[in-house]
Amino acid sequence: MVDVVVVGAGVAGLAAARELVRAGLRVRVFEARDRLGGRIWTVRDDASPVAIELGAEFLHGHAREPVAIARERNLLISDIRGDRFGIDRGRIRRMPEFWHRLDNILSRIDTSRPDESFADFLARKPGGRKAARDRALAKQFVEGFHAADARLVSAHSIAEDGSPGGDPGEERQGRLPLGYDAIPHALAADLGDVVRLRAVVDRIAWQRGRVDVRARAGRNTIEERARAVIVAVPLGVLQAGAIDIQPAVPALTRALPFLHMGSVKRVSLLFREPFWEALGLIYATFLHTGDHRFPIFWTSHPNRAPLLVAWAGGASAGEHAHTSENERIGAALDVLATHFAIPRRKLDRLFVRGFSHDWKADPYALGAYSYVGVGGVGAAKQLAKPAEQTVFMAGEATVEGRNGTVDGAIASGQRAARQVIRALR
User: Fold this and answer.
1) Residue 61 binned pLDDT confidence (cut-offs 50, 70, 90)
2) At what angle do helices 406-424 and 11-22 cross, to 10 degrees?
3) What is the arithmetic mean of pLDDT over 265-289?
């Protein structure tokens, strides 16, 4: 028997476990995967001078929690301070007005009105005819940044999360050039043998002050009793009912219908040389194609590496989520060839290999990250409420306004740990 079982060794679960262990509690962490980090997944290839991220990559805005961990472990963070460009069939233009154009639309959401989907908000043509291009950009941003279907996502939630609105701190983006997986490994550094990998939790039976957790490890069954449990698995896993929680947790029942798991197509393309530099894009960060297949690409700036990442989110990503890795790579190369006006044969000669992962088909994620549906503002806070001081929830979906972020996930684990410590003491 332990004091607390934590289900999931993504950064939310690891952050919770670290706080609990530091408080002197006996902890067991069950993780279904054969690795730490959950939707942070860094791979390394001898042909690439930089780490390749299959999941989370950026530190958005202030990102206080991962920045604090990086400083604690003396990890390098690189700020991204280059330029955005639009690129369309060989025509290249700077986009210094990106955030201003975005704010021109998002600032028009009126939260005093009844909530509606972002698509319905756009259908009323805020800003009039002159803002048509800005509305298209805002739709791409909401689908890409929030991984959200514009027909489902709450306009009020977008207004609350919004765009940085001119705040340089919130416009700031950075990355860990040696690999984002350094964050989960830093969180796990002092946990010893607390984490059990390849252990798939499928049942949690609980009553006040007592929890019985069952996990599958290959052909073996593991059972662990505790005084409390922190469930730190992705929203998609909760919504699929992959863990049988008995009796039902009221907060889950109330909150889950108002939250959605977003879809993303992400492909990292490694080339023999950074061919875009010859087009004057040495300081380019984000490249906007506007192509529905992959509306945006980004470079490794400030590192000059021959790597481009293709990204699409929202409804179009969901519709093509179960394509093969080769199909996703091929589609990304097609978009590059079209918008850079480079013959596909030439691009193929420059291409080394691609990297991608289908998070929608991943049974331990079932999607990219969460967003709030119409009428769902407050659902994340509801999800974070403990049941009988025994069942506690963590994960990016439980954090109002910071869902979908690594800093939100870490903060949720720390919050859940504090809740548990107060309950058990």
Assistant:
1) confident
2) 40
3) 95
Pick the closest to residue 300 from 48, 44, 93, 46 (CA basis). Answer: 48
Is 90 exceeded by the pLDDT of residue 320? no
Mean pLDDT for 355-377 is 96
* CA count, 13 A, side-chain hemisphere, 280: 9
Amino acid at 207: Q
Q: Report the half-sphere exposure of 3 (CA within 13 A, side-chain side).
A: 16
Per-residue pLDDT band for 424 (boundaries 50, 70, 90) equals very high
Token pair listed for 62: 């202030």
In angstroms, the CA 70 to CA 77 distance is: 8
Q: Distance from CA of residue 250 to its chain's centroid?
A: 26
In this predicted model, which residue has the larger pLDDT, 320 or 114?
114
What is the pLDDT, as a whole number, of residue 172?
81
How many angstroms separate the Cα of 59 from the Cα of each of 37, 83, 285?
A: 15, 17, 15
CB under 8 Å to 71, separation ≥6 — which residues? none
- In whole angstroms, give the CA distance from residue 338 to residue 335: 5
Please tell me the number of Cα atoms within 13 Å of 381 on its side-chain side.
Answer: 6
Counted residue by residue, the chain has a size of: 425
Place of tokens 């869902």: 403
Q: Which two tokens stand for residue 370?
A: 């969460």
- With a CB cutoff of 8 Å and minimum separation 6, the contacts of 103 are 162, 163, 164, 165, 166
Q: What is d(CA 210, CA 198) in angstroms, rounded to the nearest whole number?
A: 24
Tokens 């992705």: give the residue. Answer: 234
Q: Give the list of residues 6+ apart from residue 304 with CB closer than 8 angstroms, or none.
A: 274, 277, 282
Average pLDDT, the chain: 94
Residue 2 DSSP one-character state: -
Q: Give me the domains of the chain, ranges plus CATH numbers.
A: 4-39+182-259+373-424 (3.50.50.60), 97-171 (no CATH)
Q: Is-contact 384 415, C-beta < 8 A?
A: yes
Tokens coding 392: 């506690």
Q: Tokens representing 57?
A: 């990559």
Q: Minimal CA–CA distance to 384: which of 244, 238, 200, 261?
A: 238
Q: What is the pTM of this model?
A: 0.95
CB 269 within 8 A of CB 336: yes
pLDDT mean over 144-170: 82
3-class state of residue 173 by DSSP: strand
